[in-house]
Amino acid sequence: MGKKSNFSLIGFMGSGKTSSGMELARLLKFNFVDSDQLIQNEMGMTVREIFEKYGEKAFREREKAQIEKIKTMEKTVWATGGGAWLDPLIRENLLENSWSVWLKVSVDESWNRVSSHLSQRPLLSKAANPISEIDLRLKERSAVYSLANYSVVTDDKTPREVAGEIFEIIKRDNLADLS
After folding, report:
1. Of the four, 11, 61, 83, 139, which is 20 to 30 A from 89 by CA?
2. What are the pLDDT digits (tens) for 148-157?
3. pTM for this one?
4. Is 178:171 a contact under the CB 8 Å cutoff?
């Protein structure tokens, strides 16, 4: 199949990487991997607990090590953490070993999706104004997120609809063997 038989979903928190990724994997009959879940399983802690106990830097190192595994995988949909793509080595690895799709989400939609479980979001839980924090981080990250191979807007769409759009791109551009 070659190195590009994987798909990586990147984007900001609340963009739907995990839920849309599971749907996409189902449609493609591929495996599904959530890098945050791998790290939580490895460390026996939530992302928030890892951030609190070891700091963001330690979490990012674990993330890099987990995403490195994509080099040995085929037919896998990866949901990455919102900050993973910002690391140049992770980005290079994902671009080399997968087709990357930026799930674009607006500030309001991100807030709607994450506000009910802020305590699980280490970058927002301590912010004086979480909506301003989302706005700031989205603006900072958009230029880097735009380096992905493809992008899909997720606002007002279900994970199934987002996965369907990605599936259509895959068919249109013949990105995977769907037989």
Report:
1. 139
2. 999 999 999 9
3. 0.91
4. yes
